[in-house]
């Protein structure tokens, strides 16, 4: 995946902590960022250079060169999403407002409650913000066998932006109202929730297609789409359940099977058409 100079101002980096009046980078944050940069081909050893350690006379915000590189990468992906979705919405006579992205380590706060390191990336509709702890990608690599690349991360962030699209389109509100109404059984509401996640995968594919077209095919390189497909397969409920419990229970699916996630991401990528993403079909009739 090739980089551009586009950067978004809608990214907040919370990977630094204030302690006794001193702004420092935590050791855990360095490990998380180091792991992320390892996947991106960065030099992890530089993170532990003694010169980067904040002293008790530090008065400025401490972000190492590697920290800044991670932030710039996320800012670039955010900018790509903003530019591409703004055009897609304009083409459909809609107005687009981008989400905010918060990079954090270990824990932080959101309008949806506390964000924890174990939660992985998520979108909070209340504050229209995506929260991402980079340690998620280490888990994807070591626990579930995902082959993490730059475009893997772009796909995951694209999926979360997909939830923002659902929020803007009113889909999220509609599903929440159905859940509260008690109209459907728990089993059916679970299938509807899966459909919501599959639609976010579809939107990630739509974005990938249109973003590459917007930049005249200069972004995607051989293996990028395969990396996204691999991540979708690894994050499939059946794959996770099989690895975790040794069996599959479809009634407890939350995001869809590996095959479903790949199918909807590729449908979004192949069509590039936001109108082709009806994952709910007859579920809401």
UniProtKB/TrEMBL annotation:
Entry superkingdom: Bacteria
Ranges in coiled-coil conformation: none
Keywords, ordered alphabetically: Hydrolase, Membrane, Metalloprotease, Protease, Transmembrane, Transmembrane helix
One GO MF term: metallopeptidase activity
Subcellular location: Membrane
Annotated signal peptide: none
Gene Ontology biological-process entries: proteolysis
GO cellular component, one term: membrane
Membrane topology note: Single-pass membrane protein
Pfam short name (any one): Zn_peptidase
Coarse class of the protein's main subcellular location: membrane
Transmembrane region(s): 21-40
Protein name: Metalloprotease
Source organism: Elizabethkingia argenteiflava
Lineage: Bacteria, Pseudomonadati, Bacteroidota, Flavobacteriia, Flavobacteriales
């Amino acid at each position: 995946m090739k980089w551009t100079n586009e950067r978004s101002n809608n990214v907040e980096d919370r990977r630094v902590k204030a302690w006794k009046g001193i702004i420092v980078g935590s050791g855990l944050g360095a490990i998380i960022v180091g792991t992320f940069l390892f996947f991106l081909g960065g030099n992890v050893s530089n993170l532990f250079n003694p010169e980067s350690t904040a002293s008790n006379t530090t008065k400025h915000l401490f972000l190492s060169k590697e920290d800044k590189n991670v932030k710039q990468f996320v800012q670039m992906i955010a900018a790509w999403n903003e530019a591409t979705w703004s055009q897609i919405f304009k083409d459909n006579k809609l107005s687009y407002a981008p989400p905010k992205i918060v990079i954090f380590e270990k824990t932080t706060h959101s309008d949806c409650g506390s964000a924890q390191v174990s939660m992985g990336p998520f979108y909070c509709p209340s504050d229209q913000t995506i929260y991402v702890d980079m340690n998620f990608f280490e888990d994807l690599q070591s626990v579930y066998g995902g082959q993490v690349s730059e475009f893997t991360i772009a796909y995951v962030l694209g999926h979360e932006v997909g939830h923002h699209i659902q929020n803007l389109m009113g889909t999220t509100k509609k599903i929440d109202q159905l859940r509260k109404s008690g109209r459907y059984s728990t089993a059916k509401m679970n299938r509807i929730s899966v459909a919501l996640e599959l639609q976010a995968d579809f939107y990630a594919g739509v974005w990938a297609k249109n973003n590459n077209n917007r930049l005249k095919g200069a972004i995607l390189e051989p293996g990028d789409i395969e990396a996204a497909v691999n991540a979708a397969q690894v994050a499939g409920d059946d794959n996770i359940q099989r690895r975790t419990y040794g069996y599959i229970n479809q009634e407890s699916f939350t995001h869809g099977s590996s095959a479903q996630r790949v199918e909807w991401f590729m449908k979004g990528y192949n069509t590039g058409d936001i109108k082709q993403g009806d994952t709910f079909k007859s579920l809401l009739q």
